[in-house]
Specification:
313 residues, 8-stranded mixed beta sheet, 8 strands, 35% helix, Rossmann fold
Length: 313
Amino acid sequence: MNFMPNLKTASLNPKLIAGGHRLCPGCGLGVIVKQILSVTTDPVIVVNATGCLEICTSAFPQTSWRTPWIHSLFENTAAVASGIDAARKAFERKNKLAGKAKKMKIIAFAGDGGTYDIGLQALSGAIERGTDFTFVCLDNEGYMNTGYQRSSASPLGAATSTSPAGKILAGKQTARKDILAIVAAHHLPYAAQATPANHLDLMRKAKKAIDTKGPSFLNVFSPCPTNWKSASSVGMEICKRAVETNFWPLVEIENGKWKINYQPKNRLPIAEFLKEQKRFKHLFKKEGSESQKRLQIEVDERWQNLLQLAEIS
């Protein structure tokens, strides 16, 4: 598929999520959802896990959604999407779908808590069954809606409410889970990783994912100024630094083939990604310096592994 996003065309497509929601200033969630939904004119049903996006777009009696929308639990987002897909197929067998309804797309949105952790079992099952849907992980690296508890997406060294930085431990002491590799191991047709700052890349991948027959997966880096303790104006810059340091590579897997979409010409050290976020401030002190070194080693090793998967020497 050689889809190239056109921002003017995308801006004229139906607005499936309205402004005026309650997301924090600088939050990446609203930007990501708008970019993804702007690439299709097909009917869309959205399944939304419990979390910041759900809370801030659906406060009764108002809603920001201009498309059918279902609030699911943390753990069953992919299962709900599977049920919708099963119902759609039943209607198709009975010839009860007509017109644009035949092109209906199912898109599930969940945070890293509802993807890496609580929702992983349902996601794995839905992919294995071949559910025709797109699952989008809005990865802000923690349980943000409830006060920033650590998740398995939280980076090594991050200070969270359940992995605080102090004299004994310098934040979270374990590496983040490689969810993209876990999903890719299910041999699904399409999976990718992106950021909202690299908007054309995200929109291209979203179009490819949505139009894929069968399960597809997007893991999207989402800045959270409230809990990352960063300025609301620097979220997109942090996204760019995540890519330029190789902390968050832009990559896609299509029918088992890995492809790196961007390689930094002058890779930045991990400190450039960390320094705008006060959740990492302790890593610049003596007691946290070792954790920063460990994180740099982890990022470098994962990048080398990615080069091997993409068969780049």
